[in-house]
Amino acid sequence: MTDMTRHPQRASAVPARALDIVSGFLIYLPASTRPRDDGEEERIAETATRLGYALRRRRPFLLACGPASGASGGRTGTASPGAVILDVFPGTAASGRRFLPATGGDSAGTRGDWAAWHAMAEREAQFYNLVEATDESLCIESDPIGLKPFYLAQLPRGTLIASRVLDILNVFPELARPVDPVAAYQLMMFRAPMADRTLHQRIRRSVSGGCYFWEPSAGLRVTRARRVKAPPVDGLLFADDAIARLEQVLMRSLAEKTDGLSGPIAVSLSGGFDSRLLAAAAVEAGLPVKAFSFGRSYHPEIQSAKATAKVLGIPLAILPYPTDGSIQRLPFHLGTVECTADLATSLIANLFAIECPVGTPILHGFAGDPLAGNHLRHLTPREYETLDTVADGVMRFNGGAAPVDFAGLFHEAAPTEAVREEIRANLPDGCTPHQAYLIWDFEHKQRRYVGSHFPMLGARFDTIAPYYDRELFALWMSVPPVGLDGRSLFRKFLAKSYPALARIPHSEEAVPITPNLRYQLAGFLRRMPYALADGVMGPGWAARVTRSLSRDRYIWSLANLAGARQRAYMLARIGALRSDMRRVLELDVDAAFADRLGGDLQATRGLFLIAEYAAWLRQQIPGIA
After folding, report:
1. Would you tell me which of 79, 477, 587, 600 could form a disulfide with 581, CB atoms 3.0–4.6 Å apart?
2. Distance CA 41, CA 64 (A)
3. d(Cα 136, Cα 81) in Å, to the nearest integer?
4. d(Cα 48, Cα 129) in Å, to the nearest integer?
5. Up-side HSE of residue 536: CA atoms within 13 Å toward CB?
6. Of 367, 365, 375, residue with least CA distance to 485
7. Residue 263 pLDDT
8. Could you write out the DSSP letters of every residue in 410-478?
9. d(CA 275, CA 291)
10. The Cα angle at residue 211 between residues 137 and 441, in degrees rounded to 5
11. For the segment 343-364, what is each residue's pLDDT rounded down to a tens digit?
12. How far apart are CA 62 and CA 49, in angstroms?
């Protein structure tokens, strides 16, 4: 274990008026057109109390909030009329952040100062829900794409809203059934349910950019007024000007989100460009950074991380990377992510080997890679002609050629047309096709898949994502496609601002941005035995052997459970838990499921996760089956 126990402290500040800091909530909103059901409300109130939530009000709606210790600038207790409630992850709540609005005065905490509360939350919390509870109405709004989850279930007499799927199912276990077939397909093919879907057909996640407003006379209304928008592409943007602006905005974002920190800040070096740029910016800003990486000696990521740390002159600790880490962390993943993202995302939980108090800050490179254009390569040039071809391209890239027999596996046809129509409906108009794809990827794949890191990390860390910034997003979106192709502008940025780092190869690339004989020769010598083996035994032989020995140079192989033993384990568990899937989720999986999966690793891992989730729910909620 690696020690990092010196807890960061924030400068003291006068608490903001009318702000409550919480971690989690449970809300019941009566329908405006139907009589109240006191029995339904009482059931919700009793369950909220049993789960450890504090009841804040019963009329005109029910509001219960979870605890949040260690927060500065807010308070706990009974919510007053007009109070603003800030819902954050436990690690952020314990960080000692000030949570002060950008503007003060008598209007603080009122709707007139709502923008100031958002500005404060985006700066201090980043991943949050703002709740305004008054005697007349309730409003819920979130961070730009809604990375702090909450979920909704429509009931006969109202709407139940909760921070966790499990909390909804504790109140109404019957809502576990039926399974949403589109969500199940997306989990197995896209690695996460997209849009507002969960595995449960009657439970939905909040939408990206959503604004939820309730009042007794009109009920619940939902708009997407906070949805991110693409600016016009700036065809006159010169590379040097763009680099200067990118550097300025990144440093501003980093400074704002780390303002007042006095203790060590962890940064995870992954071997890629995003983490090294973030580490370099933090060092340039004078932040007390300590680097961490995880992997084995034969993983290129470790070599890249060591070289980066050496250039920057910062300490680096290599954390353990267990062979069966994804399986060992399964209960934690189920409890935090709740079957809303692929199990492989638990790779990030290797950072829990860092010994540190709850609330320790850690830098995360979320959004840096896709915003710089790296994911544009997922689609072909022809697939960027129209929004329809973009939707077709997304379907093709996400398992379009997968050998899975969904009709045989679940006894119903794969919902491919419904999935494709949902993608098309969520591609925004009024921008170029490539911008539409960037926004879709940001609001769906990044939000639901990579975004699942934050409930996990948020259990301990105060996670800081400087790339997750509205101004930075708008700047990248204005860059012409030629600057995004192959991350060309990002590479120029790194080469110009941090030339020594540009000489270190990316962990997945043989040649660095700036040619460097030393690193290229070292990489060649590491790859040569594999190339010789493939030349003698045939293409791919070395990779197959190293994978069978759990020594695959591809770092994701362990997290993906790609080894033969791990695959056999997953299939055995699916077979053992077929009855749980049927009883808890009403999901009837064919007895010949192994043949139906066609050897597809991603689909196998998805079905394995669904099976384990069903068994976990049965343990968590007695009587759910």
Report:
1. 587
2. 12
3. 9
4. 19
5. 6
6. 375
7. 83
8. HSS---HHHHHHHHHHTSPSSS-HHHHHHHHIIIIIIHHTGGGHHHHHTTTEEEE-TT--HHHHHHHHT
9. 10
10. 165
11. 999 999 999 999 999 999 999 9
12. 12
